[in-house]
Amino acid sequence: MSNVTVPADESGQAWDIEAQASLSHTALARLLRRPSFLVAAFIVVLMIVIAAVPQAFAGWFGHGDPRACDLVNSAIGPSSGHPFGFDKQGCDVYANVIYGTRDSISIGLLASMFGLVMAVVLGSVSGYYLGVVDAIVSRLSDVFFGFPFLLGALVLLTAFRAHNVWTVSLAIALFTWPTLTRLMRASMLTAKEHDYVLAARSLGASDWRLIRRHLLPNAIAPVIVISALGVGAVIAAEATLTFLGVGLQQPAISWGLQLSDAQSDFQVYPHLLIFPALFLSLTVLAFIVLGDALEDVLDPRRNDD
Amino acid sequence: MTIDQTPLLAVRDLRVDFTVRRCVLNAVRGVSFTLTRGETLAVLGESGSGKSVTAQAVMGLLDPRRAAVSGAVEFAGIDLLRTHRAERRRYQGRRIAMIFQDALAALNPVVSVGSQIAEVLRVHDGASKSAARTRAIELMDRVRISAAASRYDSYPHQLSGGMRQRIMIAMALALQPDILIADEPTTALDVTVQAQIMQLLMQLRDDTGMALLFITHDLAVSAEVADRIAVMYSGRIVESGSAAEVYANPRHPYTAGLLNSVPRVAARGRRLTPIAGSPPSLTALPSGCTFHPRCPIARDICRTDDPPVLTTSPGHTSACHFAEEVHREPVG
Amino acid sequence: MGRYLLGRIGQLALVFIGVTLLIYLAVFVLPGDPIRNLAGHQQLPPDTIAAIRQHYHLDESFWQQYGRYILGVLHGDFGTDFYGESVWDLMKAGWPVTLRLASMAWVFEIVLGVGFGVVSALRRGKLSDHTLLLLSVSVISIPAFVAAFAVQLLLGVKAGIFPIAGNEDGWPMSYILPALVLAAFGAASVSRLTRSTMIRSLQADYIRTAVAKGLPRRRIVVRHALRNSLIPVLTFVAIDLGYLLGGTVVVEGVFNLPGVGQLLFTSIRQQQGSVVVGVATALVMIFLLLNLIVDVLYGLLDPRIRVV
Predict the structure, then answer these.
(1) Which of A62, A77, C189, C269 could be disulfide-bonded to A85 (CB atoms 3.0-4.6 Å)?
(2) What is the ipTM of this complex?
(3) Mutate which of C124, C206, C226 to test chain B, going by most B C-beta atoms within 10 A?
């Protein structure tokens, strides 16, 4: 799309030289110019790769088996061949931290995806049809909003029998969907007002076609951005829930569990705390910076430059 | 009414450049004018002509991070552009006041309109809360807001457009300024309300003897209110003179074009004659005289040389190489 | 204003029913024996199971059970633990501690958050702004329990300034570190939000009018820009109350403060499912009430809402 020149706004406060038509192209270019985005994206991709094939990374130091534990090595600090040291059971911390990436990232992505799907379906239906459907969905999300996130997930997980990646993701998703749904609904309402929608409808387009081809692609962008921002929060949430004891449980390998184990002894053996904490914080940070950059670039009212 | 001859406000070679994403935009390119006590000067121009930016530069409202302002703005001999912000505050609101186009946006939405007027009195005059309130209600009365006392506690969104504009005027007049700058005060209003506000402004001007710098794009309004007119086009004043002179004998093709394009009842049945083309974007200003692409009498020199400001008759200037050739089409 | 209030209370009632229903459904209706679910890995003797069955009227119909449950909640009966002690009694001792912790954290959050946010907005683009932004992103990324450990390690053990855990030093010393950790996430978010709303406010037309009126800078920033910026911030602070409440679980647990949050913390560890549900329910009720109060304040602050 060519640059559209607009007669200057007199006050000079709100120039907009670039057209917003082809947002994705210029947005990508702007993203690539930000060093913070590049670093964050690198870390995120790295973590996802580690999560996918932990075996490839675990073997770099030591034997690479998180479950090969020998009590002889209990709580030994960083040493040659084992840069992160050993935990109380004598398991290699490095291998455990690497393997811990898998469940944490999985839950992060899974829960976000569940939430996104629920939000897109409920939000678009709610925003498009309004009326009774909207009322029901709104009341429902009000109810879920009534729970502080941690407490709600706590209650749910206390009641669940199984505590695996799927149930934890579901529990988390059940408390992230209200925000996303509201956003989707608002987005949908705005998109509905556009003239091309009226045009399509007057040409006889069915509801489904309208939603699928015209409304969804435009309305979904901000929701995806917020979802991406949320992955970091979800990972942090899972770690917290696991730490409390209602998330993943033994024998799963998770940063939350490692930190929980470290609680009583980290003052004497800080390495038990530092390495899982570092990985956890870094991953969350990377996702948040990523989401931030996306939001900054896609928001037409950017004023944080 | 006799007009004091010493200029109250003298703007000399004012230039404003905006830097937006690495492009430099020359919004105001060397504007000079004077304003004497009690005089009304209308700055007439379309969107993009730089008239509002000029007004804001005079008032000191431009963000120094985005706008580079050069030249001189002398009020009673003091160059406001060279004074420190703290110093300049003594003039803003007190000796020079400004009202804006969109009164709803220009008023703080969460503070009552009365206290927004009273604020000026409390900050500049150190008035007490109750004294300021009384005075504010008086001012609201003066701008013909009915039931002023009860309206004091209203919020901007609760008032009509006309009333909001009156509030702005009251706010501006609170300290009896020497100059009032009005930036398109009636553009956003309905026609009937426009007339009321214009009448109010003119009456207040006559009562107080203050100078009025009136920014507008409306030919009829400028004819009504102005002693002198300055016509702006893409950042420069292309013609200036007394209102009567400029309307009767325009000396710049742009002014002539504007006057000719106004539909007239007497000319019913004749085709409308707009000015060809559209105002240039500030990112791509034409060379030489920026009006040349749209000018009916453009010659080669117009493409290459920026015309100097010529005095065609006492008090009447024009920035056109061929000012004497310009004429206004006869009526009927 | 009255109509607004009535509307909000009505909504509260609806949400209350929804929330209790949800909790009830989750706990009692999910597949599997509810008692065994709540007991987790504990093995309860058959007498205890029978007693609990009777206490919770588990042999009655669903609606009867739910009805009892709601009535119970409205009377402050949040159930009992597996030894018969009332959850309410267990919580009573902990409220003062949690209240002190939460209020201190709340004050920290607002003061630090708004303060840093305003500074950041006014010094936009300069080094201090970038530093603060970096700091706030980092703080947001570190989960509360990790921050708690780190702070214990650095400030408690190594530097020895603050007590690492427990309530021995009383108010305020024992509470400062936990309150800071609890407030950290919220303060960082508030500062970012304040910064962006301030920047937006400062670009508004009414700020231009204020400058044209010749008002001093401080007055413009505080009375005009900040006043408008605080509205979205207040909304956020309301939502954040939930985080604060939930966060007390972690913070009191790690810092060993004997509050309601710690009760929750230990009952999870001890697999006392009914206590977990009871305490969580109580906290949710409080959250709903606090939301109502904030909604009322919101109406007072923004006159435009009142007319709606």
Answers:
(1) A77
(2) 0.85
(3) C206
